[in-house]
Amino acid sequence: MSAAFDVIVVGGGHNGLACAAYLAKAARRVLVLEAASDVGGAAANREIAPGFTVSACAHLLHSLHPKVIADLDLTRHGLSLSASDIPTVALDTGGKHVVLRRDQVMESLTAHSAADAAALPAFYRRFMSYAAVLQPFLTAVPPRLGGGGRQDRLTLIKLAWAVRKLGRQEMREFLRVIGMNVADILEEAFESDLVKGALALDGVLGTSFGPRSPGSVFTLLYRLAGEAGGLRGALAHPRGGMGSLTQALASAARASGAEIRCGAPVARILAEEDRTSGVELRSGERFAAPTVVSNADPRVTFLSLLGAEHLDTGFVRRVSNLRQRGLVAKLNLALDGLPSFAGLKEADMGGRLVIAPGIDYLERAFNHSKYGEYSEHPAVEITIPSIHDRSLAPEGKHVLSAVVQYAPYDLKRNWDDAREAFTDLAVETIAAYAPDLPRRILARQVVTPLDLERDYGMTGGHWHHGDLALDQLLMLRPVPGAAQYATPLPGLYLCGAGAHPGGGVMAAAGRNAARQVMAMEGVA
Amino acid sequence: MYLLILALFECMGAKASLREGVRTFMKSYDAIVIGAGHNGLTAAAYLAGAGLKVVVLERNPHIGGASISREIYPGFTYSNCSYVSSLMRPEIMRDLELPKYGLQIIPYEGGLTMTRDGGYLASYTDHDMSRREIARHSARDAEAYDRYANEVLRQCRFIKPMLMQTPPDPTSFKPRDIKGLWDLGRAFHDLGEEAMYDTIRFWTMSCTDFLEQYFESEVVKAHLAGTSIIGTALGPSSPGSAYVLLHHYMGEVDGNIGSWGFARGGMGAIARAMAAALEARGGQVRTEAEVAQVIVRNGKATGVALASGEEVHARIVVSNMDVKRTFLKAMDSKDLSEDFLRQVRNFKIRGSSGKLNIALDGMPDFPAVPKDCPALQGDLHITDSIESLERAYDDWKNGMWSRRPYVDMMIPTLLDPTMAPDGKHYMSVFVQYVPPKLADGEWSTEKRDAFGATVINAIAEYSPNFKDLILHAEVRTPHELENEVGLTEGNIFHGELTFDQLMFNRPIPGYAQYRAPVRNMYMCGSSTHPGGGVMGAPGANAAREILRDLKMGGTGAA
After folding, report:
1. pTM over 0.95
2. A280, A332, B59, B515: which is deepest, by most CB within 10 A?
């Protein structure tokens, strides 16, 4: 079978597009097949009411890798930020909100707790230095242990050296905190519940952990290792919503010659004589290619698209055991005006407003998720991107985008029955701080983990295609045997969030996978 | 100038100690061990065996710390705190000749979990018997049990050699530390590629995730998950709890890995045998000798001051107390750096366990279990789902004792009739979770009794005649464990077993090699590597390090 393409990329999410763009730039003939009517995956926009555009799922940039932006010239392809280095506002029921932005000590923090204001810069600097240890590994292929070659050993030595370079005292501290829970570490450093809650949220966002679960410090570090707008540990809004970012990636891929077909759901990855030979669409149409790169999550890739019969049982068991249970829902609101948050300065409205007033609040919110219930009092991360970007809503009107946690995929009640009640709860939770919110709502929409699975093809509705936790990272991500982007089936590769370094709109997995494909596959 | 001041200080110090010596009739030893728990006695016996003049100072009128048995109710011997033996290192048993001094470990068969629907699942030391039991609940799980047992055994074999080793300091360039790390790396590498991945996962994953890789049946998972939460501030779904499961698997009785036994005559028999071994080596134990403070002169520990005012002097001081008690209570903060004290304060030592000791008029009925089931001699559980273990944990986090607690009941008198009068039985009930402080304030007698009633009622649901048989019950919460046994916050392991507090991080990064920041002072309790359980390894390891510093290495300590 002579092939018109060198590489087929299954799925046009941000990682698939980044991978395609890199490969096309390297003169590979690339075809991207996307099931939905437009590219983007979970990094896409949605019009929730006429004239109201909102980032459907992911809504803040904190880790899009600067190498990807530079290599693919994304700025030229239309990527820009409508706001960068936005602050985090820890909402307080009494209206005494605390504004946090990296290591800067704001007046509100000093007024709230002088001790915490004094502790913040040192805490932040220490954690940034630990995050810096991890940072270079975001763009490295995870090493194989034991069975690996010289490159693998080199990566391990580099990691050990990066830790050693911290110096004796800090290395000791690093080795202690790396496996700790975020609640304990924050309690060692801070006194205010409000501050601890807001900082702890970053240790649990998007994971199936609570702040008292060991390993949550790592999640926090991972987040700090990312950068946005040229600043590490910062947050930014992409202009035009998250969908504009994936449009920029698609544009970069096309400019280098990649072909992108939407509305083309892949039904099967084909294998011939123990090698990938192409894909078959749901329509029955087939495309031949010696290399297939899957942006789908590992379970979909291996168990649905390829089929367990091509893999050995041990490998299939590992894939089936991936912890991939989404716990996050997204609330999108169209508003006829800005809601008024009691006590919140207008200048701070454009920040990331978080409802996580204390470690215990977060932990209790988490408890429900263990038993198939959504939180009675959820943690919420709110943004109003239309403050920075007037293209998102009609004049004088706004969109509110909120991440609501915990909302477990495996809800005991059916999500379709619970949807309205859950939406009410999410709105009420925010309304406790912004009483006029309910009457400003023109349209509302909730994306539950079940919706994420059905509409975006993510197993378990998990944003990161599997928890970013110590037992599912680096050479363990997604599973040993497929952690270096190559899979047990020659010619088949992974490039999605399920692969190292995981989710968040980072695009590093797509980039790393492209480099691995180029290293391992000759030009046809 | 500097030298002059130093000399002046030296003179003052010498003068002061001379004065005190005259006042209190100075006694001097080579080594003082604070606390006659099993690790203190182990360390002391090894030191005495190497020829040192050793004294163990114990606050209570009895020895044993948490490995103790006492007659609280006439005719009955209670193992008041720890209640089974398995983790005790066989090399220590051999070195100290504990069997010669009366220690006899009686192995028991296994255990069982009773289910809400009136059934049960038993486990046995014999793999095939356990497998058949599991098959009654799920044929698929019975097959998985083979894989599970292999994996657990493999992890035990990997960890076992580390128990009796001093953890290498990963920040050090000393040849000894580099070699230690190299050996560790080599042992890890020798596992083979696949097993290396599994091992990393095992150390970082939750017990629930670990078990779900193998089993589908709720009762099988709940039965196996119990050991992952004992003594911890974790739930079965908390990452890191898979390791705790292993911590309780590492034991052996007569060379059988994973098996458990009773100390004949109660757990106090272990401490008694150790004390006898110590005395046979020329050491001595002084009870009712509460240490108030470690005396430090010119940055060196020189002895201790007792609560009575008496001073005891020695070349070295070894503390078997937990790390918080040692440095925050028994030492003057000016003798330690602020940085070190901060780390000690940050050491996590939350208590989570309670204990009931019950004298029974006869053997209670458990209608769910056949009367001749040999597993009745072992651990009896009534928690039949992971979810209820997890909910029990949530109660603890909320500052209350678990409304439906996890209990590990044992009736040692079925195998050891010496502990109760004829026809009567002693029951040990270990309870998880019980917080050191309650959300509504401190513990009180009423609250302690209410906690006891919760546990007794829970058991009575599975044993209709249980309440009628109770002659006496001793109820112990973390509050009692702290005040009577001296365990800070009632933590039975002298500090939580999470990876930030294991190996070279235990108890404090940089101080994991049994040496305190003050010269001539050492730590030998469960706060140090490899942690809690009646294992003796911290004591033996500390003794080895001490003898190394005294250039007396290779004289007896394993």
Report:
1. no
2. A332
